[in-house]
Amino acid sequence: MLSKCTDIMLHISTFLRDKDKISLSATSKSLNELKLRYRYCDRIYVLWISHLPYFDNFESVEIFSVKDKVPKNVKYIHHAPLDDVIPSNVTHLSFFYYLDDSTRIKIPLSVTHLSFGSCFDKTIYGKIPSSVTHLTFDQYYKELDDYIPKSVTHLKFGYHFNKFNK
């Protein structure tokens, strides 16, 4: 019977924000154990959660250093100053800030949504995989001729974007 109760609580948790899941799990000892099984979907800075025993249950994280640990079940990475450590289960990837010239951006084939923020200004030729269907460029960016794969079905440009060559 307890198993059905647990399954019901886990299903209910899919409709709750992360903060509400934690509050609910604090109401009893048996519910407290569920926080180890919940999936946390709200975007959060990875250093705030790296010490938690359920760290690997977070799906949407902000990462600002290559030294930051990445949760095993992550699906959304925001900023991503990573060198060959983007997990293969990531589906949404956002680059917001400058990366140094030594950074090797290797985007896994699992990524379907890719965003480049207002300060990102690196050449990406040959680096966007054919799995990407949603591509966003913010304000400033280097030239884009022939860099957008044919798989892209949704393309969005920022306000000051003007980098196509003739």
TrEMBL record:
<dbReference type="InterPro" id="IPR051251">
    <property type="entry name" value="STK_FNIP-Repeat"/>
</dbReference>
<dbReference type="InterPro" id="IPR008615">
    <property type="entry name" value="FNIP"/>
</dbReference>
<protein>
    <recommendedName>
        <fullName>F-box domain-containing protein</fullName>
    </recommendedName>
</protein>
<dbReference type="Pfam" id="PF05725">
    <property type="entry name" value="FNIP"/>
</dbReference>
